[in-house]
Write a structure and sequence with these properties.
The complex is a heterodimer of chains A (about 600) and B (about 375). Chain A has 23 helices and no strands. Chain A is an all-alpha fold and about 600 residues long. The longest helix of chain A is centred in the first third of the chain and has 34 residues. Chain B is α+β, with helices and mostly antiparallel strands. Chain B is built from ten helices and 21 strands. Chain B is elongated. Classes of the chains: A mainly alpha (about 600), B alpha+beta (about 375).
C-alpha cells in the first residue's frame, strides 16, 4: 500500500484540471445510459401514442363533426352530436337506461358487499383469508364464461326458473332485460366492492370501537361516531368506483340485456360497427370524461391511488380472542356472506355439467355423460385456430409487457429528482385501466383502419399490450421497489458494473414476480374480448369466437370450451398464487390481483 | 473549521492514507457537508460520530463513491479518486441493513467480489475460506441470509466487505439493528478483524460508547461540519465546544464569564477556578462551563470538602436520587446554579432525596468552552 507524499496544502481542488466542479454533472460515475433511455422513450411514445392517445383523440375529433367523419382541422367543428344526446328521444333513453342500470347494480352490490366485507374484517385471520380467496377465485374466470352460465341459469327453462316454479312462483322473464343485466353486473362488481371495503374495514383498529364503548357509547353510537367516519371515504369511493365501472360495461348488457334497454357501450358498439360515428363518439367522450372524474374522485377517497392497490397483505384478520362474538348479528352477516359466495360460485360450478350432457342442445339437467363435446371443440378448425391465435398473442403480450414494465420501472426510479415527470409517466401507464375498454376498442379500430394495421397479428398484440401493461407494471414495479437499493450499491462497491449488478443481484431476487407478471399479462390478453372483437373479423381469438357463438345460440360445445377456458385460467391463477406465496414467504410482500373491468 | 486545522499538523503528512479536502455536498438546497477536511493514517480506525443529519453518512457515501460531492477532493493511497466510480475504488462497504444478497448463501455472498473480478478459482476459494474463518462463519457457510441471525448476517456483511482486500473498509452504523449485548460483542470482533487485516477503516455511528470502545480517533460531526477530531480520551475530557461536550456523554453546562486569571463565574455565584480552553480564549462569542457529573462532589454543608483540591461552588437540596447499579445519580437544586447532576459511587454521602448538601469540583475538571 502506497501512501501519499503530497502535503495537504497541495491537495486542494484545482490541482487537477479534470476535477473542476463544472465537470461534475458529466462525471463517469453514471455511465451514459442515454441511448437506452431514448430507445425506451421512443417505444413508449409510439405504443401509447398509436394505441392509446391517438384513438381517444380520433373519437373526440369525430364527436365534433356533425356527420361523425374525421377531420384534423377545426373548420367543421360543431356540437350538434352533443346536443342530440339530450334532445333525441332514443339517445336520451340510452343515457337514462345506462344511469339507471348502473345505479341499481351498484346499490344491490353495495347491500351485498358491505356485510360480507364487514364479516371478513372481523373474522380470525385464517377464516378471513379463506373467504378472501373464495371471493377472488371467480374474479379469475373469464367474464364470458360467467355470462354464458347466466344465459343458461336464467333461461326460461333453466334451473332458476325451475326453482321459482317449484316454490309456487310463476316462471319469470330473467333474461334480455334489465333484470338480466343487473344480475350479471352485480356478479361482476361484487369482488371489486368487497375488496375495497374490506381493505378499508380491516384497516380500522378493533380497539377503537372498544375504546368508544368503554367511554359509554352504545354499539350503534360507536358505529356512527367512530367506525363510520373512518371508513366513510372508502365506502363513497367504492360506490363511485363501481358505478363508473358499471357505466362503462359492454359485454354484460350486450349478452344479458335486451334490445329495448341499450346502454351507452352497446349503443356505441353497434353504431361504430356500422360506421356511424356521430352521436356514438359524443357518447364516448361523455363516458370518458365522467369516468376520469369518477376514478380520480374514487382514488382520492379510498386512498387507492395508482400503485397502492389492494394487497393480500391487507387481509389482516383479527386474532381469535378479538373475533366477533356469536349472536344474531354475526348470524345475519354469515347468511349474507354465504349468499354472496354461492352467487359468485353458481355460474362457475354450473358450466361443467352443461358440457357433458349427450343432447345436441343444452338442457337442464343434463342427460347422460359424454366427453364428445370436448373432442368436437378441440378438433373444429374455427376453435383450434382461435386457440392458436390466442396463445401466440398472449405469449407475445406477456413477453412485451414484462420487458416494458421492467424498463419503465427502472427508468421511473431515476426520475426521483423530477416527481412531476415521474407521476406523469406512471399515470400514463395506468390510464388504460381507467378508460372504458369499449372506447379503446373503437378508437384502436379506427386508428388501425387508418394505418392499415387492422386485422394484423401485430396490431392485436400491441393493442393488448397497452391493456395488459398496467397490471404487469403494478406487479413488476412493486417487486423492483421492494428490492433494497443498497443491494445494488453493495454489488457496485465490490466492482460489479451496472449491468452485472442488475443481472446477478436485482433480477434473481424478483424472478417470481416477473413470472407472476407475465402470467397476469397473458391472462389479461387471453381473456380480453372487447378490443379483440373489433380487431378481428376472420381469424378470431378464442374469446371473440366464444362471444360470437354466444350471440348465435348456445350449444354444449360452448360449454366444453367454457370449461376448458376456466380450467386453464384457474390453473394459471393457481400457479400465479403459488409463485406469489413462495415469494412472500421469502420477502413478506405480495402484489395484488386486480382485473380490468370489461 | 478552526479545530481541525489545529489538529491537522499533528498528523504526520507521510502517513496520510485517506485525504479529504474541502468537501462540500448539497442536495435539494440542504448543505449535507460543509468544508470537510480529514486525514486518516494507514491502518487507522476512525469513527465519524454525530447525531442523525450531521452529515456522517453523506461523508461515508461520498467516500464510497455512491454520492458525488458538490466540490472538494478525496485521495486514497496517493491517488485522487474524486471522479473514480465506486466499482474502481477498491473499497469495502458494510451497509446499515447489511444488504446481503438474499438469493446467495453466506459463502456465495463473500465470494461475490471475486466472481465479479474473475479471480482465479483456487485463489478465490482459498480467500473465501480464509474470510469465513476470520469472521467465524465456516460452519454456516451454506446458509442463506434469511437462515442466519442478525449477528451472523452482520458478520457475513463484514466478511463480504473485506473479502477482496479493499484499500479502505467503510462501515455505516453496522451495529444499529442489534441489541446492546450483541453490539458490544460484534464491535469487539470488528475491531479484532480490522487489527488482524490492518485495513484502514472508517466507521459511522451515533453511539458514543461504540465510538469510544473501537476507535483510534473520533471525528465528531454536526450540521455537516467537523466539530472535533481526537482520541476518545481527548474528545471526552477536552471537548472543543458545548455540542461535543454534550454529545459524547452526560455533562452539566452553565453559561459563564471568565476573568483574566482563568476564574469562571456563573450567574452571580462566587467565581471558581476553571480550565479555559484555547478555543474559548480565542472566542468572542458566549462561553459555557462544562463539568461531567462524575467530577462533581457532594458533602454535608457543615463539613469540609472530601479532598483539599475541591472548591466549594454552591449549596442546595437533593431533588432526585436514582440508583444506576454501579453508581447513583443525584440531582441537586440550588439557588444560583439551578440543577446540577452528580454521579456518586459507593459510600459517598449524603445521597438521599431532601438532604441538604454542599457541592463543588476541582478547577481542572471545570472546562470553559465556546457555546
Amino acid at each position: 500500500m502506497k501512501t501519499t507524499t503530497e502535503a495537504p496544502a497541495e491537495a486542494v481542488p484545482g490541482r487537477n484540471p479534470v476535477t473542476s466542479p463544472k465537470r461534475l454533472s458529466e462525471s463517469p460515475f453514471r455511465p451514459s445510459r442515454a441511448a437506452g433511455t431514448t430507445a425506451l422513450l421512443v417505444a413508449l411514445a409510439g405504443l401509447y401514442g398509436i394505441f392509446f392517445l391517438w384513438p381517444l383523440t380520433n373519437i373526440a375529433l369525430r364527436s365534433l363533426s356533425a356527420d361523425g367523419s374525421l377531420h384534423y382541422t377545426s373548420a367543421n367543428f360543431s356540437l350538434s352530436n352533443y346536443a342530440s344526446l339530450f334532445t333525441d328521444a332514443l339517445l336520451r333513453d340510452v343515457l337514462v337506461n345506462t344511469a339507471v342500470t348502473a345505479s341499481v347494480s351498484t346499490a344491490v352490490t353495495f347491500v351485498l358487499a358491505f356485510p360480507t366485507a364487514y364479516l371478513m374484517s372481523r373474522l380470525q385471520r385464517s377464516l378471513s383469508t379463506a373467504l378472501f380467496m373464495m371471493i377472488l377465485l371467480p374474479f379469475w374466470v373469464s367474464i364470458l364464461v360467467r355470462l354464458f352460465a347466466f344465459l343458461e341459469l336464467l333461461s326460461a327453462n333453466g334451473p332458476v326458473n325451475g326453482v321459482l316454479e317449484s316454490v309456487g312462483l310463476e316462471r319469470q322473464q330473467l333474461l334480455f332485460n334489465m333484470t338480466g343485466t343487473t344480475i350479471g353486473m352485480v356478479n361482476y362488481l361484487l369482488p371489486y366492492m368487497i375488496l375495497v371495503l374490506f381493505a378499508a374495514m380491516s384497516g380500522v383498529d378493533p380497539n377503537l370501537t372498544r375504546a368508544a364503548k368503554s367511554l359509554g357509547c352504545s354499539s350503534w353510537q360507536a358505529f356512527t361516531s367512530v367506525y363510520w367516519p373512518l371508513i366513510r371515504g372508502s365506502v363513497v369511493g367504492a360506490v363511485l368506483l363501481n358505478f363508473i365501472i358499471a357505466t362503462g360495461f359492454f359485454l354484460t348488457p350486450a349478452i344479458l340485456g335486451g334490445p329495448q334497454d341499450i346502454t351507452i357501450s352497446t349503443y356505441i358498439a353497434t353504431q361504430v360497427q356500422n360506421y356511424r360515428w356521430g352521436p356514438a363518439s359524443a357518447f364516448g367522450v361523455v363516458l370518458l370524461v365522467v369516468t376520469c372524474i369518477g376514478f380520480a374522485a374514487a382514488g382520492r377517497m379510498t386512498g387507492l391511488t395508482a400503485g397502492a392497490g389492494i394487497t393480500m397483505t391487507g387481509s389482516k384478520g383479527v386474532s381469535r380472542d378479538e373475533a366477533m362474538p356469536f349472536g344474531p348479528t354475526k348470524l345475519g352477516l354469515w347468511a349474507v356472506t354465504i349468499l354472496v359466495v354461492a352467487f359468485l360460485f353458481a355460474p362457475i360450478a354450473f358450466v361443467f355439467p352443461l358440457s357433458w350432457g349427450t343432447d345436441a342442445t343444452i338442457a337442464w339437467p343434463p342427460r347422460g355423460f359424454t366427453l364428445d363435446w370436448y373432442h368436437v371443440a378441440l378438433t373444429t378448425p374455427t376453435w383450434t385456430d382461435a386457440l392458436q391465435k390466442s396463445v401466440t398473442v398472449g405469449l407475445a403480450v406477456a413477453v412485451l409487457s414484462v420487458v416494458l414494465a421492467v424498463s419503465i420501472a427502472r427508468w421511473v426510479r431515476t426520475l426521483n429528482a423530477r416527481p412531476w415527470l415521474q407521476s406523469t409517466v406512471i399515470s400514463i401507464v395506468y390510464l388504460p385501466v381507467v378508460v372504458p375498454v369499449i372506447l379503446l376498442a373503437i378508437g384502436t379500430f379506427d386508428v388501425q383502419n387508418q394505418i392499415g394495421l387492422l386485422g394484423t397479428w401485430w396490431g392485436l398484440v400491441l393493442a393488448e399490450t397497452v391493456l395488459a401493461l398496467p397490471f404487469t407494471y403494478l406487479v413488476v414495479s412493486a417487486a423492483l421497489n421492494n428490492v433494497d437499493p443498497s443491494l445494488e450499491r453493495a454489488a457496485w462497491t465490490m466492482g460489479a458494473s451496472r449491468i452485472h449488478a442488475l443481472r446477478k443481484v436485482v433480477i434473481p431476487t424478483v424472478v417470481p414476480a416477473l413470472v407472476g407478471a407475465a402470467l397476469l399479462a397473458f391472462i389479461s390478453s387471453w381473456d380480453e374480448t372487447v378490443v379483440a372483437l373489433f380487431q378481428t373479423s376472420f381469424d378470431k381469438t378464442l374469446p371473440v369466437n366464444f362471444y360470437a357463438s354466444l350471440k348465435s345460440g348456445s350449444s354444449p360445445v360452448i360449454a366444453a370450451i367454457g370449461s376448458m377456458l376456466m380450467l386453464l385460467v384457474l390453473l394459471l391463477g393457481a400457479a400465479f398464487f403459488a409463485v406469489q406465496t413462495a415469494r412472500s414467504r421469502r420477502k413478506k410482500t405480495t402484489p395484488d390481483s386486480v382485473k380490468r373491468p370489461s | 473549521m478552526t479545530e481541525q486545522q489545529s489538529v491537522a499538523p499533528a498528523t504526520p503528512v507521510a502517513e496520510t492514507f485517506i485525504e479529504i479536502r474541502n468537501l462540500h455536498h448539497q442536495y435539494g438546497g440542504v448543505t449535507a457537508l460543509d468544508s470537510v477536511s480529514l486525514d486518516v493514517r494507514a491502518g487507522e480506525f476512525v469513527t465519524l460520530l454525530g447525531p442523525s443529519g450531521s452529515g456522517k453518512s453523506s461523508l461515508l457515501h461520498i467516500l464510497a463513491g455512491l454520492v458525488e460531492p458538490t466540490s472538494g477532493t478525496i485521495g486514497i493511497a496517493g491517488r485522487d479518486v474524486t471522479r473514480v466510480p465506486t466499482q474502481k475504488r477498491e473499497i469495502g462497504l458494510v451497509f446499515q441493513n447489511y444488504a446481503l444478497f438474499p438469493h446467495l448463501t453466506a459463502q456465495e455472498n463473500i465470494r461475490f467480489p471475486h466472481d465479479v473480478r474473475k479471480t482465479p478459482e483456487a485463489e478465490a476459494s482459498a480467500r473465501v475460506a480464509e474470510v469465513l474463518e476470520l469472521v467465524e462463519l465456516t460452519a454456516l457457510a451454506d446458509r442463506r441470509p434469511d437462515q442466519l441471525s442478525g449477528g451472523q448476517q452482520q458478520r457475513v456483511a463484514v466478511g463480504r466487505a473485506i473479502s477482496s482486500v479493499p484499500k479502505v473498509l467503510l462501515l455505516d452504523e453496522p451495529l444499529g439493528a442489534l441489541d446492546r449485548r450483541l453490539r458490544q460483542q460484534l464491535g469487539r470482533e470488528i475491531r479484532r478483524v480490522q487489527r488482524e487485516t490492518g485495513i484502514t477503516t472508517i466507521y459511522v455511528t451515533h453511539d458514543q460508547e461504540e465510538a469510544f470502545t473501537m476507535s483510534d480517533r473520533v471525528v465528531v460531526m454536526n450540521h455537516g461540519e467537523i466539530r472535533q477530531i481526537g482520541t476518545p480520551e481527548d474528545v471526552y475530557a477536552r471537548p472543543s465546544d458545548s455540542f461535543v461536550a454534550n454529545f459524547v456523554g452526560e455533562v452539566n453546562l452553565w453559561p459563564a464569564t471568565v476573568d483574566g486569571h482563568g476564574a469562571a463565574t456563573v450567574a452571580g455565584a462566587p467565581p471558581f477556578g476553571a480550565q479555559v480552553s484555547d478555543a474559548a480564549r480565542r472566542s468572542a462569542g458566549p462561553l459555557v462551563v462544562a463539568v461531567r457529573p462524575e467530577r462533581v462532589w457532594v458533602w454535608r454543608p457543615d463539613g469540609p470538602p472530601p479532598r483539599p483540591e475541591i472548591q466549594l461552588v454552591d449549596s442546595g437540596v437533593i431533588a432526585e436520587s436514582t440508583f444506576l447499579g454501579n453508581s447513583r445519580s443525584v440531582v441537586v437544586e440550588s439557588d444560583r446554579l439551578g440543577t446540577t447532576s452528580a454521579l456518586l459511587y459507593d459510600g459517598e454521602e449524603p445521597r438521599d432525596r431532601g438532604e441538604r448538601v454542599s457541592f463543588g469540583w476541582e478547577p481542572r475538571h471545570a472546562l470553559v468552552v465556546p457555546e
